[in-house]
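Contributing new records

If you add data, match the layout below exactly. Sequence lines come first and carry their own label; structure lines follow with theirs. Keep one chain per record. Anything else will be rejected by the validation script.
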Amino acid sequence: MPARTKRASAGRSAKSPPVSRLGALPEWNLADLYAGLDDPQVDRDLERGAAESLAFEHAYKGKLAALAEQADAGAVLADAVTRYEALDDLLGRLMSYAGLLHAGDTVDPARAKFYADVQERVTAASTHLLFFTLELNRLDDAKLESAMQDGALAHYRPWFEDIRREKPYQLEDRVEQLFHEKSVTGYSAWNRLFDETIASLRFKVAGKSLAIEPTLNLLQDPRGSMRKAAAQALAKTFAENLRTFALVTNVLAKDKEISDRWRGFADVADARHLSNRVEPEVVQALVQAVRAAYPRLSHRYYALKARWFGKKRLPHWDRNAPLPAVATRTIGWSEAQAT
């Protein structure tokens, strides 16, 4: 079903050296997408995506209202949506591969360049597709519902209902294009700077220089001194990079404020609720329920854990500490997989 292209963001921020106690750890197998960043199919798909996106724009831009008036409007619009879906899948495949490959090792210059190049070319291609959902949302409700009587178009009813929800927040086509094209040098670039900065940081713990993930893992170390040292190393390095993090946060906050203001969102969370297809009242009820449970759950738990450690108040570096006097062991990947 058609959907906006998004970067796949899951994964490790940087490669960590293998830990022998864990056995042979799995790596993402992205071969179902492409064989590698030098796979010639990547360039072929990028070129095909650009050419077919431009052809799609020439075929349909400014014509959807007239197509909706035809006797066979359902079938004609269904063909258009099917073509759009195929293009969205193609461009999404490219961005998913580039995003996952980059997330696997964000400090690798070759992967960073590959991700940036693919993102730029996919953004350029998808610019030619922006008009489609904007024009669909300008179609008369009655005309669209009449066209939906065709089974081929009715298949996409859930998708139409989704994009209709965004209709009140759409902007004029040229403004939407500007927002789309500037995303590469706007919020996406700042998000990437944050990811790459975090991945490149090193934390000095007990004489060793560690990346962020092994440092965070030390917060679960059985030794209290090691947990404290890891927490202090995290605080020290973060403080040394505070100006960069503050700049990234402030720029992203202002970027979102501008976008929300132009689109007419009343609350900072409204765009997220719309994207998640959830009512603000549902989210607020969840937040209130969780906060109301703080005293009887999290507060009670941490007070109890502090007593287990023989302390009046639990230091923040002991939040994830293993319970005292409880044996712990390392579970290797093979055992975990078989359990």
